[in-house]
Amino acid sequence: MDALLYDRLNPWGPGDAFYLGLVMGAERVLDIGCGTGTILRRARAEGHSGRLAGLDPDPSMLDQARDSDDAEWLLATAAEAPWQSAFDLAIMSGNAFQFLLDDTAIRDSLTAIRRTLVDGGRFAFDTRNPAVREWRAWNPDHPYAVVDPLGVRLRLHHETSEPDDHGVVTVKTVFQGPHWNRPLLASGSLRFVSPAVLDAHLEATGFVVEERFGTWDRDAFDANESRSIITIARAA
Fold first, then answer.
1. What does DSSP assign to residue 220?
2. DSSP state, 79?
3. Strand locations in the chain, DSSP E?
4. How far apart are the first and last CA of the chain?
5. CA angle, 84 then 90 then 95, to 5°
6. Averaged pLDDT, groups of 10, the chain, 236 residues long
7. What is the pLDDT of residue 1?
8. SS3 assignment, position 208
9. In sequence order, what are the beta bridge partners of 167?
10. Count of CB atoms within 10 A of residue 228's CB?
11. Residue 226 — φ and ψ, nearest 5°?
12. Total H helices, total E strands in the chain
């Protein structure tokens, strides 16, 4: 279900365009948490002629990406990335960084990402700003609808917990539609980490923050107001 609906739930938007611009300016690119491969396939369609590789731990997502030969596709987590000094740019879009739920996962992933990059290479990623408490708006009072691949309209809403001591929020998504006699539930967790915590992890794994934005239009990051923490870090 997640893979079939993923692109419907996450249509192309300003964030994708932001990352596409970075990809088009780099010769060798690794997309970590590539999902169904949307950004890399778009890059190839727009004329990227260099090396493109996508990595994702979800087999159903990667199966869809593998329908295209526009890039290399690897089933793996970020921490399992096998390359060494192979890429000029690594990206992690769509708040995928928030699926790294503890400090060990973050450190192991960043260490592997740094290893994949040449010296001076860049790692671009985004995560939600915990100061804005966006999870509080994910509740049954804010439902939304999506049309599935069969053309059927589904209704969705989220139910969330408050963060635990490590910033981890549990998210339950409730799907309602004519496919099912009762609502379908999907559960997961996301970790919200502050810029200070991000920067400590980046520094410890060989990165230096080069740029940080609060919007996809490259507005300056505001610690209290920006919904997103959009970071471009350089492999030192």
1. B
2. G
3. 28-32, 51-56, 72-75, 87-92, 117-128, 144-147, 153-160, 168-176, 184-191, 207-213, 228-235
4. 40
5. 135
6. 70 95 98 97 98 97 94 98 98 98 98 98 98 96 85 90 97 90 91 98 98 98 98 97
7. 47
8. strand
9. none
10. 18
11. -70, 130
12. 6, 11
Predicted local distance difference test score (pLDDT) of residue 3 = 66
- Estimate the crossing angle of helix 103-116 against helix 195-204, to 10 degrees: 50
Q: Count other Cβ atoms within 10 Å, centred on residue 55.
A: 28
d(CA 54, CA 63): 12
**Which tokens is 204 given?**
């410890």
Decide: residue 3, CB within 10 A, 0-12 exposed, 13-18 middle, 19+ buried.
middle
- Structure confidence at residue 10 (pLDDT): 80
- Spatial distance between the Cα atoms of 92 and 32, rounded to a whole number of angstroms: 5
Report the alpha-carbon distance of residue 48 to residue 36 in Å, rounded.
18
Residue 223 token pair: 């610690």
Contact 200, 182 (CB under 8 A): no
Q: Using only the alpha carbons of the chain, give its radius of gyration.
A: 18
Pairing between β-strand 87-92 and β-strand 153-160 as defined by DSSP bridges? unpaired
**233, 208 contact by CB (below 8 A):** yes
**Nearest residue to 125 (alpha-carbon basis) of 101, 109, 108, 138:** 109
The CB density around residue 127, as the number of other CB atoms within 10 Å, is: 22
Nearest-5° Cα angle at 116, 113 to 117: 95
